[in-house]
Amino acid sequence: MTTKQHYSLDELNLETRIGGMGVENDCTEIPLIDFSDFENRRQHITEALWQAATQVGFFQVENHGITLDTIKQTFGIAESYFALPAETKALNARPKGQNVGWEFMTQVRPSTGTQDQKESYQITLPHMASLWPQEQVLADFKSITLAFEQQAWALGMKILSCFADKLGFERDFFTRAHDRSSPEYQSTLRLLHYLPLQQQGVDAGLWRAGAHTDFDCLTMVFQKTGQDGLQACAGKDAQDALSWTSAKAQDGIITCNIGDMLMRWSDDKLKSTLHRVRMPREGEYQGSRYSLAFFCQANKDMIIQGPENKYPPISAEDYLNLRIQANFAK
Ligand SMILES: O=C(O)CCC(=O)C(=O)O
Ligand SMILES: [Fe+2]
């Protein structure tokens, strides 16, 4: 455990106020946006995304083109990975300060000061070197997760191209800013395993993921039907009232949220929204919860500067480093 500290970014000072239970009243509707026939319906989809991102900061997408088979296969390999012995996973342990490799209960959110009840494995393409599990330990892990990473990236860039249109940037502005072939690439696929409930739960002040905003431009979370717990402090006045709305888990539906980097890049027009994953309560499913999260984080060498220059320019590398340092105990 760590004590709460004073951090240097406004976003972090906000987080430290938010660690309590608040009110779970599901008072905000999380928009569901249909991505079918994207090219022909681009304008309509763009308006729906803009409305959702400026008013709520959270939205879900369906008919997005990533097949249920692909998603299930990726969940399957993630679950096999997390079932490996801890000593085996420790061979791919996360080096300090980087979003790569395996970690077990090391993330401590400024909002709670307690360890998230989870383990994760992160993939950030240029920094994987020896961090892949060996083929003889878990066959096809690398090929399946890499293929999924590519598809999640492509969908993320599609969504960001809609925001680029509305912000007055060139349509491929964010695609260039998240160039997958560059050594400066720092978008991340995170496989998540939230531990089954033991004796202590939410009443003991524990969280699967304590309340936080994301550091990135856009996060896309794949969940599994029956494995709920993700909640957003979303909508007008929700933050003052500390009221929370569930982002229901459903196979094939992707829950998306705006992160701090895009909020800054849009001069605060697009809302980065607090969210958390709470522990199950009595009478709820208490087994493991798995999710897959893709974080679109602009390449290190990109300079974040909004169209109206509301904030001074900062490199994506500096921006992210400040946040990573504040969020991990070791
Ligand atoms: O697993 C989830 O549902 C959400 C994960 C999340 O918010 C995060 O890792 O930033
Ligand atoms: Fe998050």
UniProtKB/TrEMBL annotation:
Question: What cofactor(s) does the depicted protein rely on?
Answer: Fe(2+)
Q: Which reaction equations make up its catalytic activity?
A: 2-oxoglutarate + O2 + 2 H(+) = ethene + 3 CO2 + H2O; L-arginine + 2-oxoglutarate + O2 = guanidine + L-glutamate 5-semialdehyde + succinate + CO2
What EC number(s) are associated with this protein in UniProt? 1.13.12.19, 1.14.20.7
Q: What is this protein called?
A: 2-oxoglutarate-dependent ethylene/succinate-forming enzyme
Q: Which organism is it from?
A: Alteromonas aestuariivivens
**One Pfam family it belongs to:** DIOX_N
Entry GO MF terms: 2-oxoglutarate oxygenase/decarboxylase (ethylene-forming) activity; metal ion binding
Q: Which InterPro entries match?
A: DIOX_N (IPR026992), IPNS-like_FE2OG_OXY (IPR044861), IPNS-like_sf (IPR027443), Iron_ascorbate_oxido_reductase (IPR050231), Oxoglu/Fe-dep_dioxygenase_dom (IPR005123)
